[in-house]
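User: I'm putting together a teaching handout on how sequence relates to shape, and I'd like one worked example. Could you take Roadblock/LC7 domain-containing protein from Streptomyces globosus, show the sequence you're using, and then write out its predicted structure as tokens right after it?

Assistant: Happy to. First the sequence, then the structure tokens directly below it.
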Amino acid sequence: MSQQQSNMDWMLKDLAESVPQTRHVIVLSADGLRMAQYGTETDTADRLAAACAGLQSLAGAVAAELPHSSGRMRLVVIEMDGGFFYLMAAGAGAYLAVLADEGVDAGLMGQRMRDLVARIGEHLSSPPRAGDASGATAPGGGLTA
């Protein structure tokens, strides 16, 4: 476990325990790699993180169609049978994702997620990945809340 992940564990736990019906809390990079998690198995967190990469890309493409939009995704909420999914921009190239059961207080969840992003935004930032031997780097997400 990385130092960054262990530093976030208690904060993710606080979010999960302060909002009843919260099932999974995940922090991921813009390219869909899990950075931290709470309340979920690693395989599930990895699948959700990968799905989030596509979702944030889709949301950004839709946002770009608005006349005065920067094209950056801030928050996506999906209501489905059995619960809700929240994806929030949480720093440069990082996102906070939450899966919650039906009956969750949506207003409380949004508030707690915003509070968490504000408190630990610098810890949630995903630095650009080191590239190959030539020194090239992968494109950075550069998204901020």
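A couple of points you could highlight for students: The two ends are 26 Å apart (CA to CA). Residues 132-145 have pLDDT under 50 and may be disordered.
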